[in-house]
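DM between two lab members

TW: hey, do you still have the Probable enoyl-CoA hydratase, mitochondrial entry open?
JB: yeah, one sec
JB: this one, 261 aa:
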Amino acid sequence: AAKTYENIIVEIRPNKVALITLNRPKALNALSTPLLNELVDALQVLQNDASVGAIVLTGSEKAFAAGADIKEMSTKSYMEVFQNRLFGQTDAIVQKIQKPVIAAVNGFALGGGCELAMMCDFILAGENAKFGQPEIKLGTIPGIGGTQRLARAVGKSKAMELVLTGRFMDAAEAERSGLVSRIVPAKDLVEEAVKTAGTMAAFSQPIVSIAKECVNAAFETTLAEGLRLERRLFYSTFATNDQKEGMAAFSDKRDPKFTNN
Ligand code: HXC
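TW: and the structure you got?
JB:
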């Protein structure tokens, strides 16, 4: 049974997929500190749960998340945000979660909501999705990776326009510009994401994590270093039983039985 929380719902599906639903509907899933702390805790629990192979993070049909909680942070002083490392707990999402995480975005993914979606491994968008970094309208800037990850995802020109004007982009523009991998009808989005996560959960877990690590390295390092890492990790897969099993199953014309070692 999944752990229970106040601001999120965690469900374990039969296909080794965990579904996390942000659940502060009255505030359009604004990312309060309690919500973010629960989310990071849930992800760490799922990372350590051998029965889970992949994770889907979603919100509601109206909002994935409409940003950091503006009411909570509006009166904070510089020293409070600095000393308490406001949003610092979110670093664990990228640094500690080796299992694949899909963001399934319906409705608004704004500010911290867009940044949270971009921290996931890929984004599936409902056709009603809206992405934006409107912090400029509040007299601040993105602070959970928006300027960096949006620029890497969609390029300088579009990232600059969105960050400097606060304009939202719809699902079609987000797909065209490479922010999202696919668009799905809004009502089918969560189940399509769970199915896609199930595909990954059925593969060898350590190999999926190695593949994720390699793609992430593309955003951190030079091409030469990234290629070196990829080649080394490719060789390392030959030390696993799952590589032997996967290739033997192909030759035997049968489905592989991966054992995660
Ligand atoms: C706190 C929020 C909120 C937010 C919405 N709500 N977004 N509360 N923080 N980010 C609350 C509203 O106050 C309202 O509560 C309820 O949710 C419903 O919102 P409405 O505005 O009434 O809905 P609607 O008219 O449909 O407009 C939807 C919206 C709008 C366009 C998404 O809510 C909006 O512009 N929200 C703020 C978007 C934003 O600026 N996000 C960036 C946040 S800054 P009540 O109680 O009044 O009914 C950020 C910084 C990241 O993320 C880190 C760097 C600092």
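TW: got it. The chain has a mean pLDDT of 97. The first strand starts at residue 8 and ends at 12.
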